[in-house]
Every structure is written in C-alpha cells, then in structure tokens.
Design goal:
By secondary structure, this protein is of the alpha+beta class. The protein has helices at 8-15, 18-21, 25-28, 73-84, 122-129, 133-153, 216-231, 235-238, 250-254, 260-266, 269-283, 292-297, 328-332, 378-381, 432-438, 469-486, 515-547, 551-575; strands at 31-32, 42-45, 48-54, 60-66, 95-104, 107-115, 120-121, 165-168, 173-176, 322-324, 338-344, 347-352, 358-363, 369-376, 396-402, 407-409, 414-420, 427-430. It has four domains: 8-115, Phosphorylase Kinase, domain 1 (2-Layer Sandwich), CATH 3.30.200; 120-297, Orthogonal Bundle (Transferase(Phosphotransferase), domain 1), CATH 1.10.510.10; 322-492, OB fold (Dihydrolipoamide Acetyltransferase, E2P), CATH 2.40.50.140; 523-575, no CATH class. Strands 1, 2, 3, 4, 5 and 6 form a six-stranded antiparallel beta sheet that branches. The protein has a five-stranded mixed beta sheet with strand order 12-13-14-17-16. Strands 10-11-15-18 form a four-stranded mixed beta sheet. Helices cover 35% and strands 17% of the residues. Helix 13 links the parallel strand 10 and strand 11 (338-344).
Length: 576
C-alpha cells in the first residue's frame, strides 16, 4: 500500500460518487450517512476513516478507508480475517478486506467492508449510564466473559478502549470492532501495527510487547472502573471523566503513587483493596500483569512506593493531540484526524438550517475571518440536555472529535474549521487552571493576571515556534476578555472564579500616555455626550414652543451647538 494515502477531503469527494469510485457492487449502490451540510459522515479510529453505508440488501455496513500507513496491511488483514472466521460471532463481526476497494485520483486503495455492530460505543454507554448500577453490573459481567474468551483462544484485540467496544441490550451484549492492531498467532513474527489508546494501556507497553496478553491491563482497568462506579457514581463527575477517559488517565498509570484518583479511592473503605491491587498492577512491569480472572481472585498486591518528593510535576497526557482552539493554522494541519481541542468560548450562535432544523455553533473567535468552532446539529441537540448558550461565553471547554475540512463562505468572507459534537459527553467544561494544565502547564497551577488588552499581550505572534502554552493562554484571555465582560453571567460561575484583571495604568501605551489617562478621557467624553443630548433635547422643546418650526431641526442644531461649546470648555479646563 502506498505511503501517500488520500486525505479526508479526497475520500469525501470519492464517497459522494460511490457508483464511480467503489469496486464492490453493493458499495457502489449504497446510500451513505451524511452530515447536516450534505457531506458524507466520517468517523476516525486507528488507521482508517469509517463511512456508514446502507446497502440495497437492507443491511448497514461500515466502510473503512485508510488514511494512515500501516506496514503490510494486506497480509496483516488476511491473517486476521482467517482467525476471526473461527471466532464467536457473539464478539466479532464479519468483514472483508478489499485490496483495491476505492479509486481516488485514478489510483486504487484498500477498504475494509464490515458488518454493522449495533449499540453504543463503550465510551458513550458509560457516559450515559455511569449511575445505573444494573446496566453497569451487566457490562462488567460481559467484559469478564469476553476477557476469559480471548485468553482461551490465545488472541488479543490490541486496543480495548472507549471506541472499539459496542454495547447493547443494557450492557448484556458487546462486540469488538476495528481489528487493525489485533494479535493472532500467525502474526507473531510481525511488529505490532499500533500501541492502543494510552488511557487504557499499561505505561510499559511499547513496540516490543506483542503477544496474546496485550488486553490484560485494559480489562483489569475497565473492571476496576466499573466496580468503583457501582459503589459511587459520583466519582465520574469528581474525576472529570468523559467518553474517552474513565476515572484515571494515562498519566496516572505511569505514576500511580502520585495519582490523585488513586489517593481518593484508597480512602474509600469498600474500594481500598481493589485500588491497592490496581496500583500494584500499574507499578509492576507489563510482563507481570495477570489475567482478569487472577486479578479478581488470587492476585496479591505488591507494595507501590510513591516518589512524590523526586517526581516532576505531573503532565497531562491525552489519547489525541492537544491543540489550543485559537491556533487556527495548527488545527488545520490535523484535518481528518481526531484531536482534543481546548478553547475559551467567544460566541454562541443559534440558527435554523434551510430544512428547518436547529443548530448551534460555539465559536472560539469572532465568526468573521478564520475561526475554529464546535458544531452541534439537530441530532446532537436532541441528545444534549444542557447545550452551551450565551451564559457560557468566557468559559473554557475541551472537545474531542474529528477536525472537519474547512468550510469557506466567500459571500461573508469567512473560513471555519469545525468539530461536530453528537453526545453530551464529548464536550466538557474546564476551569482556567485545568485548561492551562491540559495545554502543557503544571498541574493545578493557576494562571497569573491576564493581559489588559491586545497591546499588552505577548510580543510573539500567536502560535509561533518557541511560544509557551502560558503565553498562548494569556493571549487567548486578552482577546476574549472584552467579550466576557459584556456577556450574561455564567450558569453556575461565581465571582471568585473570575480571573484578576491587571490594574489600569500599570503599563504605558504605545503613544506615550498611560492606559489609565486614555480610559478616563473616554469616560469623560461619553458622559458629556449624554449631557449634550439632554441639553439639546430641552432647548429644542423650548425653541419649538417659542418660535415654532420642526422639533428635530431644533434638536440637531441645539445639540451641535452645545457639543461645540462643551468640548471647548473641556479642553480649556485640561490645558490648565
């Protein structure tokens, strides 16, 4: 397979004309799910973009088109396909690897045609049901049975995580999807295709680890998470969990002794022993990770020493590239990829499509020009109980999603990059310190006073090489501060959370006068302007009564005259 694979934009163009570009007859005649803008709907995962095809036989299928290179993917998928044929359809879906499946720019590229797996992804299921003990118990039992089954068959999925398990029937049924990184015995001499989502993997996993035990840590982790949530559903909110990270994150696994979540759980008597065992697994080498059955029964925890005194401040690690939403050019480089976007809301715009369906845009800069935004269409709004509104202007959010191709509107002169949100768990509000931490700052270190205006922002252009994340954060604050002052107060934000403003007059302006003097002059002129209008109004009433004529003519003349006289008096007073 060629190293230069088609981009998201090129695949979108091809899927819009399936009868021309697909080789498979059923895919040629299929209808493809689309976005509110009429583009084919694409999801990203692993090495591929996934399109949803409704075929003429009445069946729905996933069509995976590769946009990232993987060594010998044809031979790899042949081996995986052969193995999956002998595995239970309870856990696996049928698929077909087509070496020449789609034609883009005159060249053929592979696709994987998979039967559709019903249900919700594991991440969405947990985000929607973390407080439902019955469904969590069902899911825990289902995952235990799956772990046991894979151990017995000597295979491993390789990326047991939020997006690769489909859950249905209230947690009683689960299926695995996306087999790019699957280990089967016939692939033992090939290197792994991927290392899995780090939020679900042991910190010791690297390219040298390639065997049928790859999934052990992931299953133990999920079992611990579900046990904790069954005991106390409030932990989901307390740990800022979302559909792509559950209670812990990869940074916790690599330094479990310093993990805030680990400390919290060990203080809960009912979860103490489980947490100690999980900490032991995290602190041990990856070769020492037991099976889930052993972990639940006979596993003996080892002592985990905390190295807090010698540790560097814990840094945030996401499963995806973390990008500041104001960095338009950087975001554009990730079109077609899944990212974690961190930004401060500048505008919230509601509207209706030409089909009469409601939508919501959350902008990270004024909508005119080049802007990054969150799009929430009618299907997403139907699933989100509390969508963002104008009261959220000035708040920080994190969004995980696919960066869509630029939308260009030549009539109004703007270009927008967008991430579409379809579930409530995909958008999460952050404090300013948490936003700073995720963008690369030290954990829990609050930001200092923000710049007063753009003239006092960092001297480097935004997003330039060498600029620190703190400089970027301060620059974002400087651009959004004016918006935040004029916005309606936040839904639940207290005044104590508002960042401190830099005292006026602390810096000299570019023209030599102080900011404080300029601000006072502006306030004086605004006050006199109102006074002139009032005086003009009174004089106009008097003149009309005494001399007749049109009121508005008298009002304009009197206002101008009083304005001229008043301005002269102000300047005369200042000159003294």
């Amino acid at each position: 397979m060629a190293h230069n694979l088609p981009s998201l934009v090129e695949y979108l163009d091809a899927v819009q004309n399936p009868h021309v570009h697909f080789a498979d007859l059923s895919l040629k005649s299929a209808n493809y799910a689309s976005t509110a803008l009429g583009q084919p709907l694409a999801e990203t995962g692993g090495f591929a973009l996934t399109f949803v095809a409704s075929c003429n036989d009445g069946q729905k299928r996933a069509v995976r088109c590769f946009h990232k290179f993987s060594e010998n993917i044809h031979g790899r998928y042949q081996s995986i396909a052969q193995e999956v044929k002998g595995l239970s359809p309870q856990y696996f879906v049928n698929f077909e690897f087509q070496k020449e499946g789609i034609q883009v720019a005159g060249q053929w590229y592979p696709v994987v045609k998979m039967d559709w797996a019903v249900g919700e992804t594991l991440g969405v299921f947990l985000a929607n049901n973390y407080n439902n003990g019955y469904q969590l118990t069902n899911l825990r039992n289902s995952l235990s049975e799956l772990a046991r089954y894979l151990e017995a068959k000597g295979v491993a999925h390789g990326d047991i995580s939020d997006g690769n398990i489909m859950v249905s029937d209230q947690g009683k049924a689960i299926k695995l999807i996306d087999y790019d990184g699957m280990y089967v015995p016939s692939l033992a001499n090939m290197p792994p295709a991927e290392l899995g989502n780090p939020n679900f993997q042991h910190s010791g996993r690297d390219s040298s680890i390639w065997n049928n035990k790859l999934d052990r840590f992931s299953f133990i982790f999920l079992d611990v998470v579900i046990e904790c949530l069954i005991h106390d559903a409030g932990l989901w909110v307390e740990t800022k969990s979302d559909s792509s990270s559950f209670l812990f994150r990869s940074g916790d696994f690599s330094n479990i002794g310093q993990s805030d979540t680990r400390k919290k759980l060990t203080r809960i008597p009912a979860l103490h022993d489980t947490t100690i065992k999980f900490a032991s697994v995290c602190g041990d080498s990856i070769s020492g990770v037991p099976s889930l059955d052993v972990f639940q029964t006979t596993y003996q925890a080892k002592v985990v020493k905390s190295n807090e005194a010698n540790s560097e401040p814990q840094r945030y690690r996401s499963a995806y590239p973390v990008i500041a939403a104001r960095e338009y050019n950087t975001v554009r480089e990730f079109v077609g990829d899944k990212v974690e976007l961190i930004g401060r809301i500048v505008e919230v715009k509601e509207g209706m499509t030409k089909y009469g369906k409601k939508y919501l845009f959350v902008n990270f800069a004024p909508w005119k020009g080049e802007t990054v935004k969150i799009s929430i269409w009618s299907d997403g709004l139907s699933r989100i109980a509390n969508p963002p509104d104008v009261r959220d202007v000035g708040k920080w959010v994190s969004v995980i999603g696919l960066v869509e191709p630029p939308y260009i509107n030549q009539r109004y002169g703007y270009t927008h990059l967008s991430l579409t949100v379809r579930n409530e768990s995909e958008i999460n509000f952050l404090t300013e310190s948490e936003a700073s931490y995720r963008l690369g700052g030290p954990k829990n270190k609050t930001q200092e006073t923000r710049p007063q205006n753009c003239s006092t922002s960092p001297s480097k252009g935004f997003g330039e090489v060498g600029q620190t994340n703190k400089e970027r954060l301060d620059y974002i604050n400087s651009l959004t501060q004016g918006k935040n002052r004029s916005a309606t107060p936040s839904k639940s934000q207290s005044s104590s959370h508002q960042p401190k403003r830099q005292p006026q007059g602390s810096k000299k302006s570019a023209v030599g006068g102080s900011n404080q003097t300029g601000a006072k002059d502006s306030e004086v002129l605004e006050s006199f302007g109102c006074l002139f209008c009032i005086i003009g109004f009174v004089i106009a009433l008097f003149a009309k009564a005494e001399f007749g004529g049109t009121f508005w003519v008298w009002f304009v003349v009197s206002t101008i005259l009083t304005g001229v006289v008043g301005t002269c008096l102000v300047h005369a007073a200042k000159s003294k």
